[in-house]
Amino acid sequence: MFTVTCSADGSLKLWSHSSSDRRLETEVFVDKFGLHHVSLLETSDSLLIGTVSFSGKFYLYKMSNRLTAVDDLPAELKNEKSSFWALKFMKDLEEDHDVLAITMASGETQIYNLHGETLTYSATTSSTEKSFATSVDLDPTFKRMAVGHQNGNVYIYDLEYLKPLYEFQSYGLKKATSSSSLSTVRCVRFSPGGTLMAVARDSGAYGTIFLYDVKYGEVIGTLTNASHSSNVGIGGFAHNSWCMSVSFNEDGTLLASGGLDDTIRVWSTSTRTKEANLVVSKSDVDDEALSHTNQLDHATCCALSFTPRGLVPGEGDNDGLVIVGFDRVIRWFREAGGV
Q1: What is the pLDDT of residues 228-241, one digit of tens each?
Q2: Nearest Cα to 155, choosing from 120, 182, 128, 174?
Q3: Claim: this prediction has a pTM higher than 0.85
Q4: How confident is the model at residue 315 (pLDDT cuts 50, 70, 90)?
Q5: Distance separating alpha carbons of residues 269 and 154, to the nearest angstrom
Q6: How many CB atoms lie within 10 A of CB 167?
Q7: WD repeat positions in this chain (predicted)?
Q8: Is residue 233 part of a domain?
Q9: Domains in the chain: how many in total?
Q10: Would residue 87 count as lying in a domain?
Q11: Is 322 helix (H, G, I), strand (E, B) or coil?
């Protein structure tokens, strides 16, 4: 088992979970323009790794005895006119075929079927939505896809026919001088079992999190941190700055969120209340390493994920988190009698 990271230096890195030191197992240079999204799929004999560069190009790698590039890709994924962004693999519970969804700057999302390590083009969403597609997630239980857009809207599709099932519009802030939205969707995630969906959106300079009932297409509510600011939109906010990432734990009882405010929050999905608050310290980063960076480069969370329980030998069966920061640091946390 590995934690796989990508970064603006253009490299993929695999960190081993065989012991608590989480050593760097292997790395490969992929693209000089840098990488920004990564998704994994475990097969019977290997680990498939998909990633996208800032040039909009998709790459596929296979990890078995060693890390190798998979160059035999369908023409649609090699089209130089296409600019890809977010991606997500899905393991088919019925073992028919696995799925890759990948969003595009045009607002569309492409679907590919996966047999072994061979990708085959399936379909492209036909929605009239032309806003940049910023995030995607797949639910294997009900075979649905959620796509978030730069204008704040989120669409849920039936994966078999790519039929739009629900549209969740954003009613957030807009620029006074234009119709541009300040409600960009940063992350969409289905809960285990596919009954809930969490959406992290901007609200101006703040970060909000909405929970939706996927079965009935209804808003359940928002996750809110106490605030006395008059600049916060209706419903309150979850983070003092943009919320970049959300993740459900294995049983869906908890949701973790991370923002540019250097804070990780853990929420109960049943009560929608905050269970824990982790302020991530920058003191573990060398001052010289940050001396030539801007404020964004100091942010300690650009992505996070719950890790499987019992993943690392000797660390127990409590929930764990891995957090990747713009400050070029990977941090692992483990629950110990409470987070």
Answers
A1: 555 544 457 999 99
A2: 128
A3: yes
A4: low
A5: 20
A6: 12
A7: 236-277
A8: yes
A9: 1
A10: no
A11: strand
